[in-house]
Design goal:
single chain, alpha/beta, 8-stranded parallel beta sheet, 8 strands, 39% helix, 15% strand
Length: 278
Amino acid sequence: MAAIIEQIPSLIDTPYFIDTHCHFDFPPFSGAEAASLVTAAQANVRQLIVPAVGAAYFSRILALAANYPPLFAALGMHPLYIAQHQEADLAALASYLVNKTHKLVAVGEIGLDLYMDEPQLPRQLALLQAQLTLAKQHDLPVILHSRRSHDQLASALRKTVLPRTGVVHGFAGSLAQAQAFIRLGYYIGVGGTITYARAQKTRGVMAALPLSSLLLETDAPDMPLAGFQGQPNRPERAADVFSVLCELRPEAPQQIASQLLENSQRLFRLPPAKICPP
């Protein structure tokens, strides 16, 4: 990974990185937010999007975004916790969206998950549809979770056309499935999976897709990178994901960094980060 970074004269001179998917409201970041953001900035990760997994976390994520300039919020209900979500949670989400500030940039993490026991697919689909409708009403993009459900998710997205589309995060499906999402106008999230040599399918997909359709992410503290198994993932490791992506693609690192930044800013309407030496 370091070899690619060494090709760039200075990370400060490089277009900065945005971790478009970091659960910064969970340990090991909670209680150590300022120090964690300094460490991220030292790796040139200057902005983070923090998605919610349920209504219980909405207020604390919004508070984090309000208190720390590098942080931006996404509010939504994760399909993995389908048994816990209540009808009142949708009303709460709608209320937060009506009163949104510029730090609330997406609806997420939402989607489908067919990997877990008792997935309750009809209920998942109904919750997804309701949240897609809210995103459309409030002109926000969506951050999408999809496990063993890419085809079903693509079908649901065809039924509700969003002007701002969104990103299928942590993508590990086939090239054809990724291309189907891209045809619908969606971005594909590139995460730590590509750091594993055995993940040949995903590495090949990320090498073949248009650079204009990719976003950088960590899913921290989940999805640790190769070499960090058993440790919490961290936002600064987005720089390592970038380094491996550079190894997989033909474009120059500077071009890849610039395009990833442009993609993230376009989708989430993020303001430029204030670049100061950490």
